[in-house]
Amino acid sequence: MRVSVFGLGYVGCVSAACLASMGHEVIGVDVNQVKVDLVNDGKAPVVEERIGELIAEVVRTGALRATGDVREAIMGSEVSLVCVGTPSEPNGSLCTTYLERVTEQIGAALADRRERSGRHTVVFRSTMLPGTCLNLLVPILEKYVGGTAGVDIGVAVNPEFLREGTSVRDFFDPPKTVIGELDPASGDAVMALYDGLPGEVFRVPVPTAEAIKYADNAFHGLKIGFANELGAVCQALGVDSHQVMDVFLADRKLNISPAYLRPGFAFGGSCLPKDLRSLVHAARRADISVPILAHVLPSNSDHLQRAVELVERTGKRRVGLFGLSFKPGTDDLRESPLVELAERLFGKGYDLRIHDANVSLSRLIGANREYIETRLPHLAQLLAESVDEVLDHAEVCLVGTRDPAVLSALPHGDGPMIVDLIHLPDAEARRTEPGYIGLAW
Q1: Mean pLDDT of residues grouped by 10 in the chain (441 residues)?
Q2: Among the four 186, 232, 240, 419, which has the fewest Cβ within 10 Å?
Q3: Is 24 in contact with 63 (CB distance < 8 Å)?
Q4: Cβ 86 vs Cβ 99: under 8 Å
Q5: CB–CB of 357/409 below 8 Å?
């Protein structure tokens, strides 16, 4: 394919050189004439493993050249990759100035090109927040081109997962390829760019593709911060942190796995809250600052409060709650987030009914009974014997269980509003229903 790459920084330079080495005809574009001249001389404008020899080779064969002329690049390509920077503003917000400017320039050039040849696809590779492409950049393109995105112009978002220092290696052996497509033809154009590369390909809506890069980088930062905080605590307690992490990383069932990484409701139980509190307390006693670990429980509490606020926004007063124990299939109520949710709603004066097939007040004993008598002493008058009793009572139902009896009885359309705390199996279908509210979308 004939490809133009806008922005010859790390991402653009590596993308241009690697695509050219795969057989594409690539034109690099940059406002900095020094970068343009370096590329045309067969030299890399960035310092990166393997990039120097790669650029020298593809420039020598004529597969890659550079220009400062946007119109020339657009006229000589079928697909444009936008790789300009999106730095932070002083307040932390995303600066989209360069994105907007290059989109205007591409749009103006495409207005002329569209009359001469076929559809051009603009692929945004720059990191940008969800909504940026559809709400900001697509209107700019349509204004300048005088056409419709997805019809007259192809548009896609194709986030990169290149690490500085290993970016060439990452390009040819990516962890995944993500294509946010405005329409199938736009996605097909991006697919053709990477034909032959390994790794799973995900073709998703445009905002999903924009969000994935942020999910990745936030988690990477979280992992590093977690490891460093744990290392500091271990050192203060006289423990070999690398030995601890070696064992931690060996657990591929719960630790390095998809476990616990699905958005849903707050966590609870007899272990997680207690052990987090103990670890943070031990760190404080050792004068070790652990802001990530110290904020896990407050974050959990805030997520629970979001559920309360969803109920408040409905304006309804009769509320049903399905699920009470902290984990399905048990009657363990200790530090259950659903008990905490019930307590907050009851305390705010909501007319509450609760059903959990595994919870019977007469069977609760020991620490379990003591806990519920302290936190929710009115439980006996709130418990309902059946699912139908809750549905008949409630104007709003909060679903915190996957009990088949509950799932099969939940109404569609008519009936109480449904506040989904767990992402129900049919959540995708329910999402279009006016009475459905998802906590974990």
Answers
A1: 96 97 98 96 93 96 97 96 94 95 96 74 97 98 94 96 94 97 98 96 98 96 97 96 97 96 90 94 97 97 96 96 82 83 93 86 62 72 90 96 93 90 92 89 68
A2: 240
A3: yes
A4: yes
A5: no
Which among 133, 234, 271, 397 is annotated as catalytic? 271
Q: Write down the pLDDT at residue 365.
A: 59
Catalytic-residue membership of 83 = no
Query: What stretches of 85-227 adopt beta strand conformation (E)?
Result: 120-124, 153-157, 177-181, 201-204
Token representation of residue 323: 């699920």
Q: Which residues of 382-415 are buried (b: 16+ CB within 10 A; e: fewer)?
A: bbbeebeebbebbbbbbbbbebeebeebbeeeee
**Distance between CA atoms of 7 and 11, rounded to whole angstroms?**
8
Query: How far apart (Å, rounded) are the C-alpha atoms in residues 188 and 205?
Result: 14
Alpha-carbon distance of 296 to 279, in angstroms, equals 12
The pTM for the full model equals: 0.90
- How does pLDDT run across 8-67, given as a tens digit for each residue? 999 999 999 999 999 999 999 999 999 999 999 999 999 889 999 999 999 999 999 999
Give 316's contacts (C-beta < 8 A, 6+ positions apart).
395, 396, 417
Say which residues have a Cβ less than 8 Å from residue 246's Cβ, sequence separation at least 6: none
Strands 318-322, 351-355: pairing kind = parallel
Instruction: Tell which residue, 371, 415, 368, has the closest CA to residue 390.
Output: 415
Calculate the dihedral angle through the C-alpha atoms of 141, 147, 149, 153, rounding to the nearest 10 degrees: -90
Residue 193 CA: distances (Å) to CA of 109, 153, 177: 22, 17, 11
DSSP single-letter state for residue 134: I
